[in-house]
Amino acid sequence: MDEAPYKRRRPQGNSSLLACLLVLLFALIFSGIAVGTALDTYELYQSGERVEGTVAGLRSKRSSSRGRHGRSKSVRYAVVEYTTKQGETLKEEFNTEGFFFSSYERGDTVEVAYDPDEPSRMCIIGWGNWTFTVIFGAVGLVIFSLWCKLIIAYVKER
User: Considering just the CA atoms, what is the radius of gyration of the chain in Å?
Assistant: First the structure.
């Protein structure tokens, strides 16, 4: 008795389309976060007031997210003291986790850009501000390219 070899059939229905939509959703989320962060940082760089600041201290805070091995991780902050052009002295914490070269020491002088309408909204001028944006943008791009492959496979399947 000759039996035809078993042919594996792809599932019919909307499961392939659902997978494509979920991948696209993740790509849009990552890309949206990257674009939002980039625009916010760019706005501070372009229209923010620039002053000199001093690293008044370094702090670590426990994060609610878990790192490797299930332990809670700590997030590093530089406490930056700066005086606005209006004469107001502020001390703000700036997350330095994204910096490749976050070797700030107490007493270091840094350039600060702050929002004149909301002086506590600030950033330290440097390439490290873009680390988070570049990583999320790259992940979004990789996921988007995966989506392109999935959608091509979905169209060929039909």
Answer: 24
Going by the DSSP 8-state scheme, the letter that residue 148 receives in this structure is: H
- Per-residue pLDDT reduced to its tens digit, 36-73: 989 998 999 999 999 999 999 888 877 666 556 666 66
* 58 burial level (CB within 10 Å; 0-12, 13-18, 19+): middle
Residue 47 tokens read as 């229209």
Write the CA distances from 85 to 81, 112, 148, integer angstroms. Answer: 13, 12, 49
First to last CA, the chain: 34
Burial class (CB within 10 angstroms; exposed 0-12, middle 13-18, buried 19+) of 56: middle
The span from the CA of 80 to the CA of 122, in Å, is: 10
